[in-house]
Design a protein that fits this description.
heterodimer; A: about 220 residues; mainly alpha; MetI-like fold; 10 helices; B: about 375 residues; alpha/beta; four-stranded antiparallel sheet; about 40% helix; elongated
């Protein structure tokens, strides 16, 4: 029996695991945006804070996922959530912080100073400038950060099967346990396909949300 | 009206203190354009940015129409003044219309009114509203963007406009043109404008008064004529340049120097030989031939010598006629290019009203400088 036969015969199960995987990753991404984008914007007001926060996110990124699950286990056990989706989502949120915060910070910082100066000089408040100029101009780069985070999280979520989070990692984990090659490869292929689709989808989103004036500028090479 | 009283701005602290603006006191009259002139680092831009509180004042007082700028919310204060900068700073994610609408929208104008106003401004700045309204800044040339920057600063019809080298990013040819348009618009609108520039020609051209700064201090505050003819010290004399006499030419108009009663006028119907006699008797090198109040050209003894009919058949024409409001600089340039020492001045109908010669120009320059020698 080859891999595709396996997927075909277990289509129902595969769909279910795929949706579970997507659910974990999207919930994590959603929470990560709520946390990371405001932090990224907030730290643009202070170089020092930005350095510290980005360094901390960098350190977090170096912790292997399995180890992070291990660290979260005793902590979340205190509220009886040591295993399952809660630590998985939490870990993904933490891993997403670096690309999201860094890209948000960089994008806002890279808004040309004369544009910010013109906005100030014309009497736009800090909030107005953020909403009407800085964030719209930063959107493409912020989405690029989300894209990195999403693709990375799809991979890390596969490992979260080991702490009982479910998702496509289950195929791999059980395949290994049962020494069942087709099952392992099926899991791997589905995870990869998911990552490719999400990457393409985010690229499309990036293009759609780029302000028209910026797109025209790019085409004209200005 | 903007009044600066003992305005001082100190940047940094401890050993790194820099006094960018040092005890500056002067007044910009309502409806005047004042050019803030000086080399980079002289404090002119800092003073401008103090005016709308983009940077906080260290000491002194700035009042706008009698009100202390500190008595008002900084954001509200900025909305009440126009602001245009060299780097333009158009918002690339917004259309030209939305850029111009920035301040009116902040002030809560109705969208119809803003649309009307934006079209009016675009037309005023020679940008066809139908073409440019819905374009994005990236689609415009540098010069067009700069016009939009100016339009945006005027959008809410502010009484006071702050401009920081607003035409600095344009090539010299287009700059000349946009300066002329600026003057035309200012003639209509009569805004109170603080205009930062490092270009002495621009300052002379646009400024009703010029404030020259050095090292944060106001060195001289005067009309362009006064600064060119009576520079207060060597720094200013050097800054306005060794060719300041030539710059004065750019300020003086033909009407101030012309000879309204020249004696070498002859009618076109006069007999050529009589004209020759007239020239020889009076020892004139040439005569101007006028018919029906229109100058036909000029004749020299050589031209009329072999002419027997009326003198109009022998005239040589002038390359161009001078208008009353032409600057002496342009007149002089024509003289040099055409190798002529005297030119005709005509009014708007083309009627002859006088002549202007190199000698006239020289004496009006000397007149401009006599005050200097007196003092």
């Amino acid at each position: 029996m080859n891999v595709f036969d396996f997927i075909y015969k277990n289509a129902g199960e595969c769909w279910l695991l795929t949706f579970e995987h997507i659910w974990i990753v999207s919930l994590a991404l959603f929470l990560a945006i709520l946390l990371g984008v405001p932090i990224g914007i907030a730290v643009t007001r202070s170089e020092q804070a930005a350095r510290r926060v980005i360094n901390a996110a960098n350190v977090l990124m170096t912790v292997p996922s399995i180890a992070l699950f291990g660290i979260l286990l005793p902590l979340l056990s205190l509220i009886n959530q040591g295993l399952g989706k809660v630590p998985a989502v939490m870990a993904l949120v933490l891993y997403s912080q670096l690309p999201i915060i860094r890209n948000t910070y960089t994008a806002i910082k890279n808004v040309p100073p004369e544009i910010v100066d013109a906005g100030r000089g014309l009497g736009m408040s800090g909030w107005k400038r953020l909403k009407e100029i800085e964030i719209p101009l930063a959107v493409p780069v912020i989405i690029a950060g989300l894209r990195t985070a999403a693709v990375m999280n799809i991979g890390i979520a596969a490992i979260a099967a080991y702490i009982g989070a479910g998702g496509l990692g289950v195929l791999i984990q059980q395949g290994i346990a049962r020494v069942y090659g087709e099952m392992i490869v099926a899991g791997a292929i589905l995870v990869s396909l998911l990552a490719i689709f999400v990457d393409a989808g985010m690229a499309l989103l990036e293009r759609l949300l780029t302000p028209k004036g910026i797109k025209i500028g790019r085409e004209l090479g200005r | 009206m903007i009044e600066y009283a003992n305005v001082t701005k100190v940047f940094g602290s401890g050993p790194n203190v820099v006094t960018a603006v040092n005890d500056v006191t002067f007044k910009i009259e309502k409806g005047h354009v004042v050019a803030f002139l000086g080399p980079s680092g002289c404090g002119k831009t800092t003073l401008l940015r103090l005016t709308n509180r983009l940077i906080p004042l260290t000491r002194g007082k700035i009042t706008v129409n009698g009100r202390d700028i500190l008595s008002e919310d900084a954001v509200k204060l900025r909305q009440s003044m126009g602001y245009a900068i060299q780097a333009i700073g158009l918002f690339p994610n917004k259309t030209i219309y939305e850029n111009i609408a920035t301040v009116p929208r902040l002030l809560g104008w109705k969208e119809d009114k803003i649309r009307e106003r934006a079209d009016e401004l675009l037309t005023m700045l020679r940008l066809e509203p139908g073409i440019f309204r819905d374009r994005y800044p990236a689609e415009l040339s540098g010069g067009q963007q700069q016009r939009v920057g100016v339009a945006r600063s005027l959008a809410a019809d502010p009484e006071i406009v702050l401009m920081d080298e607003p035409f600095g990013a344009i090539d010299p040819i287009n700059r000349e043109e946009i300066q002329n348009e600026f003057l035309r618009i200012q003639n209509e609108l009569k805004k109170t404008i603080a205009f930062v520039t490092h270009d002495i020609h621009e300052a002379i051209k646009v400024g009703d008064e010029i404030a020259i700064f050095q090292g944060g201090k106001l060195i001289q505050y005067d009309t362009p004529e006064a600064i060119l003819t009576r520079p207060k010290n060597k720094y200013i004399a050097d800054f306005v340049g060794a060719d300041r006499a030539l710059k004065v030419l750019g300020l003086l108009r033909t009407k101030d120097a012309m000879n309204t009663n020249p004696r070498n006028i002859v009618k076109g119907s006069c007999d050529a030989q009589e004209v020759l006699k007239f020239l020889e008797e009076k020892g004139l090198k040439h005569a101007i031939v006028v018919e029906n109040n229109k100058p036909l050209g000029y004749v020299t003894p050589k031209l009329v010598k072999h002419e027997n009919g009326p003198v109009r058949n022998a005239v040589d024409t002038y390359p161009r006629f001078i208008q009353r409001y032409d600057t002496l600089r342009d007149v002089m340039s024509t003289m040099l290019m055409q190798d002529m020492q005297t030119l005709c001045v005509v009014d708007d109908n083309g009627d002859f009203i006088g002549t202007i010669s190199l000698k006239n120009i020289q004496s009006s320059i000397l007149d401009a400088y006599t005050d200097e020698e007196d003092s």
